[in-house]
Protein: Cystinosin
Amino acid sequence: MSLVLTVLSIVVGWMYFFAWSISFYPQFRTNYKLGHIKGYSKEFGFLNLSGFLAYFLYSLWGYLEPSIIPGIVDIQDIAFAGHAFVLTLLLIIQCNYYERDFFIVLKLWTKIFVACAWLISIVICSIELAGKFPHAGGNFNGCLWLGYLKVTITLMKYFPQAIKNYLRKSTEGWSIENVMLDFTGGSLSILQIFIDGANSGDWNVFGGGGSFNIAKFCLGFTSIVFDIVFMYQHYFLYRHPPEAKRNLELNLSDG
Structure:
């Protein structure tokens, strides 16, 4: 173990924690400034809340019992997941303030998916905690299920927002600062994984005790991919919102 790499991992870890944690605040400001949440996907927010609850439980469980998951769970992972869950909950409360029917108008598939996911999670985790879970060779358990659930939700949650931007032909109401900070946090979180791997020399993805935290890697990678999509929408596809675009076309025609 290298002291330099250990210190570098800690520094990068807290950098990703602050970048990803700060990324939640600009959306509050955007909603407040506009006075509505017409550009913010309700499905994205609802899935985000469930995802971060799963990730917090996964990270805390993996940190307390490191032998049950592959990869290192850093203290920054727990701090980020807990902070993210609280901020997402507060954001949904703000959204409900602007639109009282926030939960009522959620698409049915979102409600069904979240309800089924947590029902299965309760069953699996209860069996695991009772010590009666068949560990399938050590490659699956209740804690890992929560990690897989978070990865699944992350893969799903960005689509409603990207589709909403596409249908509106605008990213107004969707904070680009949030996207930029999310991209930074995702990149740094993946960098920390590789630093930990280089430090330990163990790149075992599926066996216990390795440094490659597969759930954390998937979260970071997925965030980066969709953040690139959002940046392309904001800076290229929908640079001018529909109303501004029409005004620009009228000004050009008058000239």
